[in-house]
Amino acid sequence: QVETLKAKLLEQAQEISRLRSELDGPDMEKHRDLLAAENERLRQEMKACEGELRELRRQQQAPCRDCTHLQENAELQERLSQLQREAEETRAKLAELNLEVQQKTNRLAEVELRLKDSLAERAEEEERLSRRLRDSQETIASLKSQPQQIKYIIKTVEVESTKAKQALCESQSRNQYLQEQVGMQRQVLKEMEQQLQSSQKTVAQLRAQIVMYEAELERAHGQMLEEMQAMEEEKNRAIEEAFCRAQVEMKAVHENLAGVRTNLLTLQPALRTLTHDYNSLKRQVRDFPLLLQETLRSARAEIGQAIEDVHSTNRELLRKYRRELQLRKKCHNELVRLKGNIRVFGRVRPIMKEDGEGPEAANAVTFDTDDDAVLHLLHKGKQVSFELDKVFPPQASQEEVFQEVQALVTSCIDGYNVCIFAYGQTGAGKTYTMEGTAANPGINQRALQLLFSEVRGKAADWDYAISVSAAEIYNEALRDLLGKEPQEKLEIKLCPDGSGQLYVPGLTEFRVQSVEDINKVFEFGHVNRATECTNLNEHSSRSHALLIVTVRGLDRSTGLRTTGKLNLVDLAGSERVGRSGAEGSRLREAQHINKSLSALGDVIYALRSRQGHVPFRNSKLTYLLQDSLSGDSKTLMMVQVSPAEKNTSETLCSLKFAERVRSVELGPVSRKAELASWPSQEHLEVTEGLPGDSPGPAGPSSRGHASPSPGQLSGRSASIRRKLQTSG
Hints:
The chain is an alpha/beta fold. It has helices at 2-24, 27-59, 69-156, 162-339, 398-411, 430-434, 443-457, 515-528, 577-580, 585-608, 620-624, 626-629, 648-662, 710-713, 717-724; strands at residues 343-348, 365-367, 374-379, 382-387, 390-392, 417-424, 462-474, 477-480, 489-490, 493-494, 502-503, 509-512, 531-532, 540-541, 544-555, 560-570, 634-641, 673-675, 686-687. Among the domains are: 1-52; 190-225; 340-531 and 543-577 and 585-663, Kinesin, CATH 3.40.850. Strands 1, 5, 6, 7, 8, 9, 12, 15, 16, 17, 18 and 19 form a twelve-stranded mixed β-sheet that branches. Strands 2-3-4 form a three-stranded antiparallel β-sheet, with helices on one face. The longest helix is centred in the middle third of the chain and has 178 residues, at 162-339.
């Protein structure tokens, strides 16, 4: 119970402290007094304004009703209503503050009553504890008197009977129990005495705290009275100051009113002038839309005429520019023909799924819309431009590409040597451009179809014989793709007739007379060619393929004989071993490919710099192309590039090599024609009379064997070769 009383006293002390902290802050009282002072000041101003308004109304007469005082009167009325609203708001705030102060005073009175009740309850608890203490002392005194009587009984009953002994034992046990009870009562008495002492100490402390709180309350009450008196004085002083300020402002208002009257008399002439000017401006504004529309109409007509003149001039300039561009290209082609320059075409393959996704697969090649011979490469953040003879974008078809080269192809019928070779990194589309697919053939098959078409057109006056040979250079070894033993190595030698031309002894030639014959030859050559899968290309060519087409013609009327040769070369692609993942035999193939392409670069450099010695014999590839690169052939290089960002380094190298090749001058081309009799068939190493049956199906070469053995080819190439061969 004492602990409960202590807790209640602590709560009451906290409540008194909170109320005292609320009453100690005079901010609310000050705010209330300030609001009262402001309310009084506003009330005084309102009264002054009402008096001024009444005076102004008395002074206003009929002649002044239309003057500017009416506007000032309206402004003063609006200000008066605003002051009245502010006064009402101030009264409401003052009433709220008075109510809050009354509520806090009531709460303080309730706290004092609860404190008195707590003190009365504590006095009653102390009285009850005192009574309990006295009862405990009396019980202890009575218990102290009982043990001696028991001892006396024990001494007197020692000689009695068995019942007496039993009663004696019971008395002894009862005595023991009573002694234990006495001990327990003594212990309880001690504890209660200690509690009483602590309670007395706590009561003394609480009384001291109550006295201190009462003194603090008296002091706070006195301070609050003093502050309220001071605020009352401050309020009176503020009211006096506000009254004085209102008087000064009223005086200033009267002075301003007098000045306004004076200005009104002087502003009437100016007002008449302004009214006249206003009417004039109003008329001008009313007429302004018509003037603006007319001006805009004429300006639109002039601007439209100027734009039309500029468009017509631009169209004329663009027409002249395109005409000059075509004329320049025609003159350039004629100059290239006279000088014997190697023509260079560029073809950009489209982005494919093998290029992947993300930034590495982004398109890094752009084209010039006005010049189809220029392309731009974005390499390492810089744009590099290249000018070739013709550039084919990714959307260009096989037909469009062949239309640009068919003039060279047909010239071999007239007795010229022509060479078309595809150059570029692996996976750039060289084989697709040269060979194509069955549904969309490339330059090789289209060239032979064109030759057959031209031959049929001249059949009335000319007799032509077209023969085809196919070879590849694999690991610096020349192999016959149409021979009985494709693995047999061939050598390149000079013609014994002293002409300086090169030929390959033992190279098989097939005479072809139709498109079906061409398809059989191509199928047989594809089976024997070495291809392999790498990280960069699923069907990567591992050798340089050469298709040699020889066209021999005889003019029956004049006896003129012509011999033209068309070399169609599909070079193996240059590759970086680290990216292609070549190992073992694939690595050896890549080394030989890169070595032969490097030798081709050395030959181009020597020709471009007009050196006395050109290293044709450094590679079987350059030695075999010596006739095409030494000045007696029309030569075209088709450079294939990839537009993917990850291939920009290889694309840059290919385009730079193409520019160097384009600057090489081979000299004028001579025509191979002479008056002679038609050669007998024994001079041709060719098998005539191809059967008309269709070739058997032949799949792609095995990806696991780049150099197929004769035993491996026996099941595929032998049957195809039997269809190509005939008796006698």
